[in-house]
UniProtKB/TrEMBL annotation:
Name the record gives this protein: Exopolyphosphatase
GO molecular function: pyrophosphatase activity
Gene3D superfamilies reported in the protein's UniProt record: 3.30.420.40, Exopolyphosphatase. Domain 2 (3.30.420.150)
Domain Ppx/GppA phosphatase N-terminal: 18-285
Pfam families: Ppx-GppA
Source organism of the structure: freshwater metagenome
């Protein structure tokens, strides 16, 4: 039996919609789309969503509502993550979603975010001809947070940390290009988050690193030498730690204008890709894992799959 579902993931940097048909555990895309809305812009300083960020996000949601109406999914879930947890004007955001979609957003905990990321990332990769070795450390580098999840068939330990590509850019990487002092300050924050992750997750047990989200996939696209973004080529690719380290250094040394000229670079990632790459680089250095397996499937797919296993 085919069940059509719709999943929306509203993060710090982007909002994404997946409408999919799921049958016997196989997920088939009907619609998969993303808009960079930078909902979390300035939140690290102000503690609230700006009116401009809300307007961008609500405009994207109105477009998503039309697609959902057109494709008629049986089940719909809207999930909001890091940026939405602690803002002072959260009710304004929630009311805006409800009025446009007819459903309330679920502002999920970091733990549930980690579980959904693991579910989405591993469902496809474990069925490849040469699957990554278990246990897996799944790392989801978002705009405001990074999740660390260890597991094999499911998560056994997880933590959400408050480092992400938008947060680190706004907090530290202000200059164009970033100065050595700014990069050092960002590394200190990232390493503190990794220290925290080690306290909650037995990271040393991991045999494979699986990387998710736009920072990871964009760095992979650059490493693969792609002239434009190609999700099929990116999904399941394996990028070595030395390549990640080299590309991170190159991105941090570039000006914004130079990054904008890179073929696979989405306009909404130009400002934050350096810090996102730096988070990945520090994780690989600190864990000693020699490569990252890149997944185009992530929390969005986990939300969709969760609508089948937990339809309520």
């Amino acid at each position: 039996m085919i069940v059509r579902v719709a999943a929306i993931d509203c993060g710090t940097n982007s909002i994404r919609l997946l409408i999919a048909d799921i049958e016997n555990g196989t997920l088939t895309d009907v619609v998969r789309t993303m808009v960079i809305v930078r909902l979390g812009e300035g939140v690290d300083k102000t503690g609230e969503f700006s009116q401009a960020a809300l307007a961008r996000t609500f405009a994207a949601i109105e477009t998503f509502a039309l697609l959902i109406s057109q494709h008629q999914p049986e089940r719909v879930r809207f999930v909001a993550t890091s940026a939405s947890r602690d803002v002072s004007n959260r009710s304004e955001f929630m009311d805006g979603v409800l009025s446009r979609l007819g459903i309330e957003p679920d502002i999920i905990s970091g733990d549930e975010e980690a579980e959904l990321s693991f579910l989405g990332a591993t469902a496809d990769l474990v069925n490849e001809q040469e699957p990554p070795a278990a246990p897996y450390l799944v790392v989801d580098i978002g705009g405001g947070s990074t999740e660390f999840v260890l597991g094999t068939t499911g998560p056994t330990a997880a933590i959400s940390t408050n480092v992400g590509c938008v947060r680190m850019t706004e907090r530290h990487l202000i200059s164009d290009p970033a100065t050595p002092q700014e990069i050092a300050a960002a590394i200190a924050d990232i390493d503190a988050a990794i220290d925290l992750a080690y306290q909650s997750v037995p990271i040393s047990q991991a045999h494979s690193l699986i990387g998710l989200a736009g920072s990871v996939t964009t760095v992979a696209a650059i490493a693969l030498g792609l002239s434009e973004y190609d999700s099929i080529a990116i999904h399941g690719s394996r990028i070595s730690a030395p390549d990640i380290h080299r590309i991170t250094g190159e991105l941090l040394a570039m000006t914004r204008a130079q990054r904008a000229k890179l073929g696979p670079m989405h306009e909404g990632r130009i400002d934050v890709i350096g810090s996102g790459a730096l988070v990945l680089d520090r994780i690989m250095i600190r864990t000693g894992l020699g490569e990252v397996v890149v997944s185009e499937r992530d929390i969005l797919d986990g939300i969709a799959r969760g609508l089948i296993s937990n339809p309520s």
